[in-house]
Specification:
By secondary structure, this protein is of the alpha/beta class. Helix content is about 35%, strand content about 15%. α6 crosses α7. The N and C termini lie far apart (about 75 Å).
Length: about 290
């Protein structure tokens, strides 16, 4: 007779005991499926962040915008500075990075994913952030935004607490807000254009209040146009980092006359994504100084 055999009855007490156990199991299963009222906030803040290790800067771009030799629009395109400084961005997806090789290949800066939402930290952050610094690169960190899980200020605080801070040492770039297509659902995270603008302002203003510099904003023109209505309200404070996997940077968000960073490819010479800073090394150092 198996211990799991419920067809054998050993008397009224045994029946009541088994029924009680089954009832308890049923309640437990219901609690796992349905969120209890007191825990609704916690569940909604983290429930759908299921693959943060796959949410790197630009992870959603090719699927939505593709990659080609021509820009989607020539209107508003800009001419880059004569000198570009090469760099990269990495995340936990790359694991331990060989920074000596990246430096030898001409990489002068690196941005490293630190956080996502208010629940994820990159397990390789220390190796990547400190390793790039130790070989001589100017480095910074970035936060992958999920505006449907918590407020902008809360995510800025979490970012700062887990590697996103800035210091005016000439080697640390302002933190970057990675705001792009939702990898988990609705393109604009279920927010209206006005609500999205408010969310980004909340993040940027909180970062500035605590760190003394505004964050860099990473995005694509198409996403920005769709989800913020091509809002121009950040151009006087946050440098723009545009993602465009084409031969030209294309159209910039409203208010920006030039880009600061351009992510032009998702593979190439360097680990992670391929980036250019729009200026020479001295201008990159100036940005790091705030």
């Amino acid at each position: 007779m198996s211990h799991g055999d419920l067809s054998v009855v050993h008397g009224p007490g045994s029946v009541r005991k088994r029924l009680g156990l089954l009832a308890g199991l049923f309640v437990t299963m219901l609690a796992m499926v349905f969120v209890m009222p007191g825990s609704a906030s916690a569940a909604s803040s983290t429930g759908h962040i299921t693959h943060p290790e796959l949410d790197w800067m630009g992870s959603t771009i090719k699927a939505h915008e593709g990659s080609s030799a021509s820009s989607s629009s020539s209107a508003g395109t800009v001419t880059p500075m004569a000198t570009q400084t090469l760099g990269m961005d990495v995340s936990g997806y790359q694991g331990n990075v060989n920074w000596a090789t990246a430096w030898a290949n001409g990489g002068k800066f690196a941005y490293v994913k630190a956080t996502e939402s208010t629940s994820y930290t990159n397990p390789y952050f220390a190796q990547q952030y400190n390793g790039s610094y130790n070989v001589g690169m100017i480095r910074g960190s970035y936060h992958f935004a999920t505006p449907d899980t918590s407020g902008g200020a809360a995510q800025a605080d979490y970012f700062i607490a887990h590697g996103g801070g800035w210091s005016g040492d000439g080697k640390t770039l302002p933190g970057a807000l990675d705001i792009e297509y939702n990898p988990y659902g609705a393109t604009c995270y279920g927010l209206s254009q006005a609500s999205m603008v408010s969310w980004i302002h909340a993040f940027a203003n909180q970062y500035y209040a605590r760190e003394g510099v505004y964050p860099v904003i990473y995005t694509t023109f198409d996403w920005w146009n769709t989800c913020t209505g091509n809002n121009s309200g950040f151009a006087t404070t946050s440098p723009i980092w545009i993602a465009k996997y084409t031969s030209t940077v294309g159209t910039l968000p409203a208010g920006y006359g030039f880009y600061t960073f351009w992510q032009y490819g998702d593979s190439g010479t360097f680990p992670g994504d391929q980036d250019r800073f729009n200026g020479d090394l001295s201008r990159l150092q100036a940005l790091a100084l705030g």
